[in-house]
Amino acid sequence: MQTFDYQAQELDLKLERVRKKATRLSLVRLVVFFFFGASVVLGLAEHPIWLLLTLILGVFFIRSIQNFNFQKDQEAIYLALQKIHIDRKARQDRKLSKFEKGSEFTEKAHPFANDLDLFGEHSLFQLLNHCFSTQGKQKLAEKMKSSFESDKVLSKRLAVQELAEKPIFLEAMEAVGKAFSKEENRNSSWLAWLKQKEKTGFFFSILAVLGPLGGITILVLANLGIIPIQFLGLWILLGIGVMGSIFKPLKTAADTIPLSQTLKSFQVRSQLIEKEDFKSDLLKAEKEKLNAEGEKASALLLELDQLGLWVQNRLNLLYIPFNLIFWTDFLLYSRLVKWKQKVGNALSHLPENLENWEVWVSLGAFEMELEGNGEIFISEENLLIADEINHPLIVPQKSIPNSINLDQTRQVVVLTGANMSGKTTFMRTLGINCVLANLGLSPFGKSLTLGSFQLFTSMRNSDNLGESVSSFYAELSRIKSLIDRLDSGEKVFFLLDEILKGTNTEDRISGSRALIGQILETQGFGIISTHDVELAELAKVEPKVLNFSFHSEIQDQTILFDYLLKEGPCPSFNAHKLMELMGIRFSG
């Protein structure tokens, strides 16, 4: 069996070569088919000895088709590899507009997904997703939105780092998926078909042998003039009658077995996984799931691919005459029944397992091709320590790293700062790096230490006219969700942006102070950003409250930002100058 080439070097030259081979094979196939047809005519009209040449040409014709198909498949893989490398450069440059946004996976009520640019335009999903099936993308999205499990982070990290060191395996898995996989809605019906028992019996086995022998005998005797040619017509009529008993199960198989390209994707990806040696316990377990009761899934799929192609082409004009004469449906049915008896339900889990591998490949590719190289440390304490952390969606050359240390003794940070100085981006940087760590991915920065907590954010609270909900009420509802979780004793790391911005200054400050007081009595800790510098006064009476800020500097008609986090409250704000620059004229 020929094996595919997954090396990405000199792709243009390789594509040229494989296309030339395919063109030559196409011409050879046409010539062989012409001589095949001629030998059939000579065999029937002149002498049966020509049928021997027909058999040889038939084998050669089939081999030429297989070789042609292999060259076209190799071409598809090369094209997929080419696209993978183009996409990689786009991700490294953070040019993400052409990638799927994953907006359908957004959940407004989710604890953090809606605020951290996990999905949508210029999102983590666009940077991370290498899946090609709908189900694979759904699984990846669910992983991104999953609750934090600090005890599993390091085992996931070992698996991801191992995959990142296998670039050819990652590219091969993705290329095969992109080259061969077609979206089908056959999975559920295929699983039902695998469980369905077929009619069996000695009668069908006899007909599988009798059909070809009878057809050959009648052809030879008729050609020699020993029996009239009308006997062939009677034999065909008899065949139509008896083959009707297996027409329905074969049609069901044709309708439910995945298409050849999909089976090829299953088979080749299974083979790639089987050949790879993994050290991580998680990857070993995923690989073990592919085993089909002691037999390799790839071998079973290859056999099914051959049978499926036969089943799905039974009504082909070239197949029908052979079937009517040699009753080949019985041979096909016999082999299909034996395959199902051997496999049973062993392959029923395969599509789902391969979808899991799509997620693993996405994680490994992200780790391999992007700049996340920080360390992850896990603590049983309720804390978060970020050392020179960056935002993964910002081009590395433009990203400014910042650090912060939060725990139960440094429980609430009041973050003040000028407009556009970087408050919200910094909070999102912390949140999205926590999500990366929960996936087993390296943080973008020197290191990230995670305690045992859940993440909660409140940043994008918009009104909903359909539900008659104002943005202020939406934020209050969000804060109530946080309070309920904290009151239940849950450990929560929260990020609250522009707290209570929908009300007047006096109510906003008093409400914010009351909320911070409640938080200090729980196991919650986090950051609250605000323009109300009055809240910074809390740090003078509450030792667990800290002040941090981002600053700006006004020079002539320009506002300059350094985007560096500083201790202490913000000394000045820039809203007045920004309004002037936008054309608002202040009197006096």
Automatic annotation (TrEMBL):
What SUPFAM superfamilies does the database record attribute to this sequence?
DNA repair protein MutS, domain III, P-loop containing nucleoside triphosphate hydrolases
Please give one Pfam family short name: MutS_V
In alphabetical order, the GO MF annotations are: ATP binding; ATP-dependent DNA damage sensor activity; mismatched DNA binding
Matches recorded under SMART domains: MUTSac (SM00534)
- Tell whether Nucleotide-binding is among the UniProt keywords: yes
Identify the keywords attached in UniProt to this record, alphabetized: ATP-binding, DNA-binding, Membrane, Nucleotide-binding, Transmembrane, Transmembrane helix
- The membrane spanning regions, by residue number, are 27-43, 49-65, 201-221, 227-247
Q: Does the keyword Nucleotide-binding apply?
A: yes
Domain DNA mismatch repair proteins mutS family spans what residues? 410-588
GO BP field: mismatch repair
Q: What is this protein called?
A: MutS-like protein
| Organism of this sequence | Algoriphagus boseongensis
